[in-house]
Structures are given as C-alpha cells and as structure tokens.
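call fold(seq) -> tokens
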Amino acid sequence: MSIEKQLSEVFKHNEASLQCPPSLDNRIMAEYEQAAMDKGRNVKMMKKGRLPKVALIAIIVVLLCGFAYGSKLLFSNATDKLSYQLYSSDAFHLNEETFQNARATLKEVRSQLLPGETAVVYLPEIIKDVPLYGVFNPDYNTDIHEWQQVLEEQGVTEKLPASLLDGVYQFEGGALNNLFYPLIGWDQDELLAEMEAEKKTSNNEQPIWRLTDLTTNLSMSSYSSIYKAENGKAIYLSCQIFDQSVFKIDAYTLPTNDVEELNLNGKKAHYTKNNQSLLAESGVLQSVMWLAEKDGKSIMYTIESDSPDISKETLIEAAKSLP
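ret:
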C-alpha cells in the first residue's frame, strides 16, 4: 500500500472522532487530499474556504530522514490548539554515504540562494515517497530592536534577550524561517511535478531544485534568532506560529537518538538530540522545545544548537534563562 493510501486510511479512521477545540484529538497525521509529505516541517494545506471547522492541515515533521512505519510514541505535548507527538523508528535510517551525499546537495543548493530565499530540493534517492526537502539562506536583521518589533507584530511578546548565559552568547541577528526545519510554500505540488519531469529528461548530476514562495503559506510562519559566542559556537532561538484553529504535528526520530522530558520553569518541555540532521552544520542537532498559546495563536518555541561542543546542560540552561 502506498504512503498516500495509508495516510488516506488514517484520515478516514480519525475523521469521525474529530472535535472542535478544546478537545484536541487530531490535526491529522496526513494530508486530506493526496498527501505530499516533506521533510522539516514542510506543509501542504487545503485551499482557503475548504477547511472544515477543525482545520484538517497536514504537517509531517521528520526530524531525521522521513516518514516511518511501525513507529513508537516517545512523548507528546499539547496545548488547547496545538499538539506535538514524537515517534521513534529506524525504518528509514540513512546509510552514511546517502546521508553525506544528501547533506552535500542541500549545502550546494543553499550556496546558490540569495539571502532570504527558500528552495525545495528534489532528492528521491533519500526516500522515494518523501522526495522534497527545504533549504533556505537566512537574511539576518542585526538590529535587535527592529527584530523585536517583527516578533511582537506576530504575537511573540516576550522581550528578546540581548545575550544568553551571562553574556557569553550575543545576539547576532534574526531571520524569517528556521535554518534546520525550513517551511516551504503551498506551491510544492506544482514544483514537484516540474522537478519530476526534469529528472526524467536530465542527464547531468546537478541538483534539481526550485525556489518556493513562502507568501503562499498563510497558515504558519517561523522566526529564528541567532546568538553567537566569541569562539563561533551558536545557539538558535526559534518560534513557529500557527494561525489556524487546531494543529497536530507528528515528528519522527531514530530510537538511538536522545530524548528527555524537562520541567522548564514550570512548563513541560522536551530535549532531543538528532544525530543525523541533514541541515545542521555538524550533522548533529540538539533542541529544547515547548509550546504556548497567546492571543488565539499557537506557538512552538525551540532553542537549538548544531555546535558539537555545546552540552545538553548548557542548552537547557539557556532555555531556562529565557523570560
């Protein structure tokens, strides 16, 4: 059975039990119409005006390398409108050669992007049924006051710190989108068709990719702030803002990755260590994630680092220091 068919069956199974908030059971594990799954919080939504009262929006978050069968639930976290589940499975573990080749391709495409541009890259050799992967080149706003205003306009009202961990990490800039899990536009279906056609007629080894229009993705937005130490180590503070009524995010990781539940100043949070991150500079990404709801919007906060010398304890300390 194809992934699309399995996802369709999952939707049919859950459709009858969908409830309006606050009884958050499902934001749907798959897309209602011919699921187009993608790595890194890439999103496909139904056209405006066709959403039922509970937004049937598909987000497949793949922390490692794709949608996984036979998965095991590691943890869940939820607010009234936003639910997040992390599952483990080694069904689609990448061998080292495939992993490094994919990283090299994504890095090559990123080097061709102008600041602020986001692209989708066609990589069916990773997982046939998950061929699209997002990548973007950040356009950093280095003025912390201007960047604070951008965040406040989106409902993020906490004061952005000028530094983290007693001044060791200084604010360097803020950018739209997430460096490690880029959002892409709703144009991904059309772009996929173009790239599949190009693949059939192309004889060269150059990456196949297209620019994607983020302005078509009206359901959510993502913002990242980077803090750097003098030695070059970096910590990223990101927030993903969801505008629809109900969301459910299903994420997948390998059983060998580290996962730990945290008490973050009274908030439920989770630490994860991804040992096979396609977009992390080191290939390893550590994250602390928690959820919130403000002014009718759901927000997912993450504080992350791909610097191999930053410890779990340091990252958690940085998260606890935030307002």
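The first strand starts at residue 38 and ends at 39.
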